[in-house]
Amino acid sequence: MDESATGSGELSADFPTLDRHDEDELLPQLVAHLREHRTKLRQEWASRIQDSLLLHAMTPQEMAVETTSVYDNYVEVLETGSVEALQHYARDLSERIIPRGVETHEVVGIVLLLRDVLARSLFEKYQQDFALLNRVLDAYEPAANRIANTVAVSFVDERERVIRQQQDAIRELSTPVLPVRERLLILPIIGVLDAERARQLTEQLLTGIRTHRAKVVVIDITGAPDVDEAVANHLVQTVDASRLMGASVIITGLSPEIAQTLVTIGVDLSKMNTIGDLQGGLEEAERLLGYTVTRQESSGE
Amino acid sequence: MTNGPALVSILRQGSYLIASIHTALDDSQMIRFQEDLIQRIGHHRSRGVIIDVAALDVLDSFGSRTLRNIAEMARLRGALTVIVGIQPDVAFAMVELGMGTGSVYTALDLEEGLAYLDGHLPTSTRVSHTVATRRP
Q1: How many helices and strands, by DSSP H and E, does chain B display?
Q2: Chain A CB within 8 Å of residue B107 CB
Q3: Which terminus of chain B has fewer Cβ atoms in its 10 Å neighbourhood, N or C?
């Protein structure tokens, strides 16, 4: 058996079909070996994960559960050669661990560790017969690589899906134009203002001015984390366009960071009426419109 | 092109002139409008001018410059000018192309423009009758 096995091992480099045959023969052996030493190998793997300080976001119990199922899945893929189940599992796993703050390098790291642990156990088992070891590794490595690849890709896919979803969510956060009093609109801006959203905002604001016959508009940008030069200039244009429609704009809630950025990059905001916070902005707007708000003595009790 | 029908109706309302532009004007028509309007300011001894551009969905650079010029000429003739009814799209396009109305006051619509003139002209020249302004 050894004799013939060595022969086909040498040929396998030139004839992949023979390699396939080899794989068919050796992989079941390998799988049986991995099944047999499941507990020991899994524990070794888990301790290597701990040594590498990976997955510290997870509790030991969770680790035990996840490593067991990853191990079983791994062996199953080696056996069946079908990565679909693993893909499904990896996506499922990613969905669970991404919110826990598990990073890509950790996931790739643990899969490579498992690959390494299993390879070492194969070294140990076949160390007497170097040729057979070579053939076992020939069969094992492509399958193991495929698994590592699948897990990493699934993880990154899941991650990107989450990011896309969040982007959509941010984009869909509408920029409501809210009438507060007759002829007074407020426009709270929450979230990142990119060029597309800024354009949308202008359109809604100008239409809102016409529909509500607004005279004063308060744009509150407390909720905008950052404003770049393009968006700042767009804001200036929006203010000018509003003025052309007969409405004056008050900008409120410029954060210290944004204020510093705008001045540093040299956006001309001298024509903009800015007031510290929304409350001040509303008071100023009411003053412009001639409203006086008084508190009733008996209210609030 | 100084002959032919006027494309802008210029109506007298007390001491105000109200000019409504109904259709996009080419350059010579714009000049014709300018001449007519400046002439009528003196003729009617008007103190305020309202130019209503609500019907326009485009306003080119020549148009907006002429409007600015008209306002300045009107000022020299003793009348205060308000431009009203700039549409949202037009407003933003004007700003993007860097052609605002300068120091000319703009208002949402005719009603707002009248309210502005009422508030910014000496009382003796105000129109105290017939105009439907919404003053609280």
Answers
A1: 4, 5
A2: yes
A3: C
